[in-house]
Amino acid sequence: MASQRDVRNKISSVKNIQKITRAMEMVAAARLRRAEQRIQALRPYAEAIGRMTRQAAQAAGAEATRLPLLTERETQRNVGVLLVTGDRGLAGGFNSQIIRAGVRIAGELGEQSLSGAWYATGRRGVSSMAFRGYELSGSYTGFADRPAYADARTIADDLIAAYVDGKLDRVEIVYNAYVSPLTQRVTQEQLLPLSHAAVTGPDPDAEGPEPSGPRALVDYEPDPEQILKRLVPDFVEISVYRALVESAAGFFGAQMTAMRSASENAGEIITDYTLQMNRARQAEITQEIMEVVAGAEGLS
To answer: Is residue 2 part of a domain?
Structure first.
């Protein structure tokens, strides 16, 4: 049985770890609240861009289908995959589930005789994909905790350029959609070409049936086709930015949950070690009593 000193040292070490995990939990909780506020602030802008794009596409009519970012390639050979991960770990399976999804997609592309071009955000995703032997066509790090719109524009510009130049025939994005601090849903979406349903269809964020009354007429200057050419890249940028923001919120939620679980586990270990130390103390006291009794019997 370990001595009291050994057990006491173990308890001290676990308590120090528990202090760290509790501090990280509180920091993650504070950052999560700010990330949730960014999501709330983003939604009206994203809805407005989507609504304007749909209205311009409806006004453009058949001309909308001729835009490169809306045109489906007849033959697809190269597929770009953007994996959105975090810059840091200690967040449970947050990053690993995105990496696993990327490996699964790679297998599916291989079965379809398609080649993949890999893009990754976050140091975890970049290092993990490089470790597994995947050559990255684009890597973006240093902003996973607090992404800016300029970061999303940089990523979107690279993907759009590769698609327009014919280097990519389709672009997929994989990220952790934020549901709650306890739940992050792995989401795979087609980023390019833009789905006709997403651009020309009804507003997915609208509640209830479409209004049947008269609508205001909109005059476009320049023509709807030119406006749509400007709006579609913005639509791609806001889609990337939404994925980055939701991934950041999901990371802090996962980290907060993981650190809370670690703190609770540390408390259970401390309880077990305390019982072990009490047993060791009781054994030492019993041994001392037996030695005193044996000494007293030897003198009598």
So the answer is: no
Residue 292 is assigned to a structural domain of this protein? no
Q: Are 162 and 168 in contact (CB under 8 A)?
A: yes
- Give me 245's structure tokens: 């923001």
**pLDDT in the model for residue 243:** 93
Instruction: Determine the longest span between alpha carbons in the chain, in angstroms.
Output: 116
Q: Is residue 12 part of a domain?
A: no
d(CA 14, CA 300): 48
Q: 272 exposed, middle or buried (CB, 10 Å; 0-12, 13-18, 19+)?
A: middle
Q: Residue 140 belongs to what domain range?
A: 25-196+220-256
Question: How far is Cα 248 from Cα 95, in angstroms, rounded to an integer?
Answer: 11
- What domain count does the chain have? 1
In a domain? residue 267: no
From the CB of residue 44, how many other CB atoms can be counted at a distance below 10 Å? 10
Give 68's DSSP letter.
G
Q: Which residues contact 267 (CB under 8 A, 6 or more apart)?
A: 18
Find the mean pLDDT for residues 46-70.
78
pLDDT digits (tens, 9 = 90+) for 190-211: 888 876 545 555 554 444 454 4
Residue 56 belongs to domain with CATH number = 3.40.1380.10
pTM of whole model > 0.70?
yes
Helix (H, G, I), strand (E, B) or coil at 71: coil
* Residue in this structure with the two tokens 């001309």, named with its chain if needed: 63
